[in-house]
Amino acid sequence: MEAHEVILLAVAAGILVVLVWRLASRRRELPCPVWLRRMVELDNPFTKTNRAGSIVEHLELAQGMTVLDAGCGPGRITLPVAEHVGVQGHVVAMDIQEGMLSRVRDKARQRGAANIEFLHAGLGQGKLETGCFDRALLVTVLGEIPERLDAMRELFNALKPSGILSITEVIFDPHFQRRSTVSRLAVEAGFEVKDVFGNAIAFTMNVRKPPHDELREGSS
Fewest CB within 10 A of the end CB: N or C in the chain? Predict the structure, then answer.
């Protein structure tokens, strides 16, 4: 078999795996496997939008904040966020796979990051407290969740009034969600779109939970 034929077969196999994975995720939660954690620990070299520094920069973090990294994976964003909120801050690293959380624990121990709490759970399992987070993150995670609107509503309830949910999507991810889809789900869950960074194929959308007064007006 010629070299170009091998390459074409490899590409075709990769596309098939992505399609099967995406279709299967519509029925149950299928996050990135733990054995691929080394790959997702690295910033994507093809886009600035998905880089940890860019995501953290747009979060408007302050010392002492409480932040949820939902579907944290191996902690690519968790550790920089923990550093930004400082020792008076608090970060909850949440993931459905214990293997991912174990990797975050190791890195936190190595860096002396004592302000990280670990939550072995998935969105929709009712494990999040109400109104306790200043910020929340979903970095290439939303498409892995079958009941996406329920997940967004749970995050809405978990945020404090005026809290921000940051959602990052990159087209290279098998579960990529279009900007229009993310915006629709956010609005249906009660959020308002605050900022969008990037472009149609790689973006971070920050959505805001309305303040107390707006929530009361909306329920009256």
Answer: C
DSSP bridge pairs for 93: 69, 118
CATH topology of domain 31-219: Rossmann fold (3.40.50)
State the residue for tokens 């970095």: 139
CA 141 remoteness from chain centre: 5
Domain boundaries, the chain: 1-27, 31-219
List the pLDDT tens digit at each of the 220 positions of the chain: 555 444 455 434 444 444 444 454 444 455 655 444 444 444 455 455 568 899 999 999 999 999 999 999 999 999 999 999 999 999 999 999 999 999 999 999 999 999 999 999 999 889 999 999 999 999 999 998 989 999 999 999 999 999 999 999 999 888 899 999 999 999 999 999 999 999 999 999 999 999 975 665 555 4
CA 30 to chain centroid: 14
**Radius of gyration for the alpha carbons in the chain, expressed in angstroms and rounded:** 18
Q: Which two tokens stand for residue 189?
A: 């869950």
